[in-house]
Amino acid sequence: MPGHSTSRTPAPVQGAQVVSRVALLLRIVGQAPRGLPLAQIVRESGLTRPTVHRLLSSLLGEGLVDHDPVAGTWRFGPEIFVMGTVAAQSYPIEDLARPSLHRLAEETGESAFLSIRRGAETVCLLREEGSFPIRSFVLHEGVRFPLGVASAGLAILAYLSTDEVDRLLVQDEAFREHWGEQHSPAAIRQHLEQTRATGYAVNPELILEGSWGMGAAVFDQAGRPTWALSLTGIEPRFRAGRQPYLGQLLLDEAHKITQKLQHAR
C-alpha cells in the first residue's frame, strides 16, 4: 500500500521491565547515603511492597545494596563503590571540579556542590563544606531534583534550546502538587530569563524556607550545559548585595572547569 511502512515495531526486550525497576530502586536508594526505610522506597517507587522487597533482596545478594536490620534501612552496597571507582576513570569531571569546590567554599564560607544533568534531573555528585557554621541541608550527594527546581537545574536549563526547555517544562499534576506554584512553568521561565541576564541562577528559598542557592553551568566539549556548580546557605548571606560577588565566583570557577574539559583527552 502507498505510504505503508514495512518496518515492524521491535518486540519488547525480555526482562526490560525488571531492569527498569532495579534502576529505579537504585536511584531512590542512592539519594540517602545513610539509608532509606522500605516503606519510603515503596512509596517513592510506586511499586508494591512485595516487589520492592524481592528486588532489594536480590540486589543485596549481589552486593549492590546493604541492609541494616536494626534500623531497617537500605543503602548502596560495596559493589556500587567498586563500579563507581572504575567508572570514575572515564569521567574526569570530579577531579577537575574538586579544586573549584574547595576554592568556592574557602572564599565564601558557604557549602559548594557539583551536580550533573541526567535526563530531566540534576544529581548532586560532590560537596565541599564551607566554614560558616549555619548551613542548608537541602543539597547532598545523590539527591535529585527536576531541572528548573534547584539553582543547578536552573543554571543548566537556561542554556538548553527553546524546544528542549518547552519539553522539560511539561508538568503533570503530581509535579505541581509536590513542587508547588513557585515551580510552575511560568515561574521557572522567569528565573531562566534572570539566569540568562546575569549568567548565574538564583534559588530564593524556593525549595525550603530560609535556604538559598546559586548556580552556574559547566559546559562539555560540545558546548552543552552538562554540569553545574552551586552554593547553598541561609537567606541573610545570599541577599541582593552579595549575589553579584557569589555569582561571579561561580562563573569564574565554572569557566575554569569548562576550559579544562575542552582540553581533556
UniProtKB/TrEMBL annotation:
<dbReference type="InterPro" id="IPR036390">
    <property type="entry name" value="WH_DNA-bd_sf"/>
</dbReference>
<keyword id="KW-0804">Transcription</keyword>
<dbReference type="InterPro" id="IPR029016">
    <property type="entry name" value="GAF-like_dom_sf"/>
</dbReference>
<protein>
    <submittedName>
        <fullName>IclR family transcriptional regulator</fullName>
    </submittedName>
</protein>
<dbReference type="Pfam" id="PF01614">
    <property type="entry name" value="IclR_C"/>
</dbReference>
<dbReference type="GO" id="GO:0003677">
    <property type="term" value="F:DNA binding"/>
</dbReference>
<keyword id="KW-0238">DNA-binding</keyword>
<dbReference type="GO" id="GO:0003700">
    <property type="term" value="F:DNA-binding transcription factor activity"/>
</dbReference>
<dbReference type="InterPro" id="IPR014757">
    <property type="entry name" value="Tscrpt_reg_IclR_C"/>
</dbReference>
<dbReference type="InterPro" id="IPR005471">
    <property type="entry name" value="Tscrpt_reg_IclR_N"/>
</dbReference>
<dbReference type="InterPro" id="IPR050707">
    <property type="entry name" value="HTH_MetabolicPath_Reg"/>
</dbReference>
<dbReference type="GO" id="GO:0045892">
    <property type="term" value="P:negative regulation of DNA-templated transcription"/>
</dbReference>
<keyword id="KW-0805">Transcription regulation</keyword>
<dbReference type="Pfam" id="PF09339">
    <property type="entry name" value="HTH_IclR"/>
</dbReference>
<dbReference type="InterPro" id="IPR036388">
    <property type="entry name" value="WH-like_DNA-bd_sf"/>
</dbReference>
